[in-house]
User: Fold Peptidase M20 dimerisation domain-containing protein from Janibacter hoylei PVAS-1.
Amino acid sequence: MATTEAPSVTALREVLRLHTVASDDPDRTDPAPFVELHAVLRRHFPRVHEAGEVVDVPPHGLLIRVPADPGSPTCDADPVVLMAHMDVVPIGDESLWTHPPLAAEVVDGMIWGRGTLDDKGQLVAVMAAVESLLAEGLAPARDVWLSFGSDEEVMGTCALAAVELLRERGVRPWFVLDEGGAVASDAFPGVTRSLGVVGVSEKGVLSLRLTASGRGGHASRPAKGGTRRPHRRGHHPTGAPPLPRARLPPRRSRCSGAWCRTCRAHCGRSWLARSAPPSLLARVLVAAGPEAAALARTTVAVTTLSGSPAINVNPTSVVAGLNLRIAVGETTAAATERIRRVVGRTIDVEVAEAHEPSPLSPTDDPAFALLERTVTTVFPEAVPVPYVMYAATDARHFTTICPRVYRFAPFRMSAEQRESIHSYDERLGVQDFLDGVRWYRTLLDGLTHESVAAAVAG
Assistant:
């Protein structure tokens, strides 16, 4: 019971009760929940706001600079940026939830609610860790910037605005850390240990609109061949991608090679422990199920389909929406051209949205080593490994000012919990949340150790 009464848990539950949903059109976003969320953060984390410099970022985001200890050898070194986002996706069909999605109930040691995993748990954990540091009269060894976006779920402009504010100030972060991987159990076939998967890149995003035209008319008199359906050749009805088998480019292969070496060292007699080259790893991942396959190739999903307005009318046009996640080493232009070749000239292919894959961040680097040490310190059962994240985050915008952009949420997550993200029954263990707070505090303490090491080396 004591853990459920922890101040950080109370703060998280208050934040979860706020329905902070962003809209594609900023003018349609209700600002009130975001304003209240800012107030909750000020109330629960007063030292962060008193010691830090708080900058409002449009539309409803925050940048908070927590200044370094002036006596630290690295007080003038490049800062660290810790990220999260305040907005959440809609709750969907509330009847599917075991517990109300905006009640933040604690049941059987779990906090239930929209945003526990994506991404309010991380937001509050970061704030709680910094607050605890300041409460002890300490300060970070180098400046720490907290960047909290307000429209990540709709791929909005808040993170871009934050990057521009930092750029104008001449800020070049040592590393950036956003949501992404987690301490994942049962993540890959044959791997029995938990993995602390740290994202070193993320796949690109490509949304296509496929349109086929026809003559229409009464359904009792279908024309020969009917309307040329975009799904007829463009995609399989199940959504299986009309794309080549996985091919890992050289830099991606190096990332997979590091993944293999780590697992061979720590995961015993699993299939990864054998000397499988990255090219074979890619093919094994494709066959291992959707979560693993998404790591190794460009994927395509059919997300929307519209045709006739009536069941007895032949459509004059059929429109299918495709969402592709572009593998590192490929481009949105090449993927678009592949789709055009598959569907043929009679289907119009329009690009609705396109974002290239993010650059790969280094894994043979002191910043990544610090993240690895922090993972093993707080989660000794987990093996830290790099991976390419298949979802899109605000972190991709920070690659323009920093070469070390990592993606990791320091929470234990089962496969069932991971599936609840953007779905129903999203939940986070109370102790797992508190361990996440401890992880961020350990990371902040680790910055001090890095500072001492730098002073000795100097």
